[in-house]
Write a structure and sequence with these properties.
By secondary structure, this protein is an all-alpha fold. Helix content is 71%, strand content 0%.
Length: 442
């Protein structure tokens, strides 16, 4: 059972949201932590639950027992830190082999937070957190399904600044509705469409391959964004202000800028832990750390060797972009052209990440050579024609459409608000209708 299932959306999330809302102030984070553990158990079973408990427990023990980098303990502190990171990596590999797929995303979030806490403690920037507070920080229901990845002090600051207002409740409900629509009405149909296009060796022409890449990217984008917005909206209704996870990545003018906007809190984690600005990184060190990160992401969202190849290729591209001595494009090159080239590069990477095997990935790139022609094949053309509405809405949702509507006049603001409310009502109706039909469908 995944996050986009009827019991999770209609029972688990509302139940623990109400439990948190009506609990006393000191019990609210306990309710969210218990909800996070319950979600992990529902989505991944006892194996996922035990791995989550082992991840957080081992991280806290490492923080509690390890020395800091001061005096004569510098070497020992590094060994303790690397041992703690190795334990988290082993737990992730076990989860990948036993569970796999999106069900291991909560463990990834927990592991990244644990690594940051261990690193901050080793560098004498974090005191030993209480076990209760650390477990609540690790298992927060609003952040566990898809992030954002926060540091322990930042999480505590958000908890201390909690304030419930009517405006926050409205904003949170709006985020939940939008996230639910993107997750149920866009991501799930696109995932089904991607499987139909990729099956049976139907990717033969240039447009077939481009369609496969675009559909996989849209599916991945709305799955992550929809889940993140549901968690962010739930937190906002409870009074917690979580940061946005996406910042219009389609408007990025470079690959580095794209990944910085695609998952903003993850990029912030990379700058804090993996690639801090104060540390001197040569090209080899930058590539090694970046390949480790994107290789792990590729194993999460891709399949075996395809994910690893995509991670290594992305790391190589980012390293070349960062350490190149000459500019590939002149300064006078138009911004629209940079955005288009960035989108093409990202889509080409989706061909390997979304393939079922390395052979399928090579075949997808081979189709781009145009040996079997350029137009859509009959099967792919039929699938795209029957799903044109979902594809059109998904493509339009990539762009910040709100910026096209001026806000200066009061009449325009009123019309805009009315349109937003009407659109969200339609989104909610469509999302629950689709969710219910999928749940009742044999």
């Amino acid at each position: 059972m995944n996050f986009a299932s009827f019991p999770v959306i209609c029972y688990l999330l509302p139940a623990f949201a109400l439990l948190t809302a009506f609990s006393g102030e000191k019990w609210k984070r306990d309710a969210l932590a218990f909800g996070g553990l319950f979600y992990v158990w529902v989505a991944g079973g006892c194996t996922a639950l035990l791995l989550m408990l082992a991840s957080a427990g081992c991280a806290w023990l490492q923080i509690r027992l390890s020395p800091r980098k001061e005096g004569g303990h510098h070497r020992r502190a590094e060994l303790w830190l690397y041992a703690g990171i190795a334990i988290q990596a082993v737990l992730l590999l076990i989860c990948r082999m036993q569970i796999g797929g999106m069900q291991m995303l909560p463990l990834l979030i927990c592991a990244l937070q644990s690594v940051e806490c261990m690193s901050e403690h080793a560098n004498n920037r974090l005191k030993i957190p209480p076990l209760h507070a650390f477990l609540c920080y690790s298992f927060d229901l609003t952040r566990l399904p898809c992030g954002p990845v926060l540091s322990f002090p930042e999480s505590e600051q958000i908890r201390e600044n909690r304030a419930v207002t009517a405006e926050k409740i409205g904003q949170g409900a709006s985020l939940c509705i939008r996230g639910l629509f993107q997750l149920i009405c866009l991501s799930l149909p696109l995932a089904q469409l991607h499987g139909q296009i990729a099956s049976g060796g139907s990717v033969r022409t240039v447009l077939d391959a481009l369609a496969l890449m675009a559909v996989f990217y849209l599916m991945l984008y709305y799955r992550l964004k929809g889940t993140a917005q549901i968690g962010q909206g739930l937190a906002k209704m409870l009074g917690y202000d979580l940061p946005d996870s996406f910042d219009s990545p389609v408007t990025a003018g470079s690959v580095r800028q794209f990944w910085a906007r695609f998952l903003v809190p993850m990029h912030d984690w990379v700058k804090r832990v993996l690639l801090p600005p104060q540390s001197a990184q040569d090209a080899a060190g930058f590539f090694a750390r970046t390949a480790l990160l994107f290789g792990g992401i590729g194993l999460l969202f891709g399949r075996g060797g395809c994910g690893l190849l995509w991670g290594a290729g992305t790391a190589l591209l980012l390293t070349a972009e960062k350490y190149r001595k000459r500019r590939i494009l002149p300064r006078s090159f138009p911004a629209a052209g940079r955005r288009l080239l960035t989108a093409v590069v990202i889509l080409l990477g989706m061909g390997m990440l979304g393939s079922r095997s390395i052979f399928d990935g090579v075949a997808c790139y081979g189709a781009l050579l145009g040996i079997d022609g350029i137009p859509f094949s009959d099967q792919t053309g039929y699938l795209l024609r029957t799903n044109w509405f979902v594809i059109a809405v998904s493509a339009a949702g990539l762009f910040p459409l709100k910026q096209l509507v001026p806000e200066g006049k009061a009449r325009v603001r009123i019309i805009r608000s009315a349109c937003v409310y009407a659109a969200e009502a339609v989104m909610l109706l469509l999302a629950y209708s689709e969710l219910l039909s999928r749940y009742l469908r044999p």
